[in-house]
Amino acid sequence: MTGENRRVDASRTPPAPHPAPGPPGPAYPPPAPARASRARNLAAPVLTLAGVAAAFAYVGAVDPNEPGHYPVCPLFRLTGILCPGCGGLRSAHAFARGDLLTALGANAAAVVGYVLFAAFTAVWLARAWRGAPAPRIALKPAYWWVFGALMLTFAIVRNLPFGSALAP
């Protein structure tokens, strides 16, 4: 063999086999998942509640009845029609200050939403404390259609003369 052939032969040498990963021996089962701590379970509902409380504190401190603090509803600005959410900030302001009648007068649907959110959060906190999974809102499509129809009816009625009590 010439020197040139040796180089070619040396380049065709198969690579050394890789060692087997891990020590030889019986296969061990993976470790069991650690149970989440109570603090970790409570983190999401507590942070959500803190964020909502901060938002209500801000709206309670900065009056939406004074112009210039919040943007105007685009639907109302363009068409003069009250959407289901119109008056929601005024409602939140009154609710945060403890004036339930004014809150209901500004937007009754929003007050119902505040109460439903409070109930959901209470259930979420109780389940998180016990280590249970978070509650799920799993409604059949028919219920969502009913909810949409109620919101549409609320929006229509509050824009009619006989429903002016529902207008903010």
Report the end-to-end length measured between terminal Cα atoms: 100 Å
Report the oligomer.
single chain
Low-confidence stretches: none
Largest sheet, in brief, is: none
* pLDDT averaged over residues: 84
Q: Helix share of residues?
A: 55-70%
Report strand %: under 5%
Count of DSSP H/I helices = 7
Structural class: mainly alpha
Q: H/E series, N to C? A: HHHHHHH
Shape type = elongated
Radius of gyration: 31 Å
**Total beta strand runs:** 0
Your description of this structure?
This protein has about 170 residues and is an all-alpha fold. It is about 55% helix and about 0% strand. The longest helix has 24 residues, at about 40-60. The chain is elongated, with a radius of gyration of 31 Å.
Task: Explain the layout of strands and helices.
Elements: H1 3-11, H2 38-61, H3 74-79, H4 88-96, H5 100-106, H6 108-130, H7 141-158
Helix pairs in contact: 2-4, 2-6, 4-5, 5-6
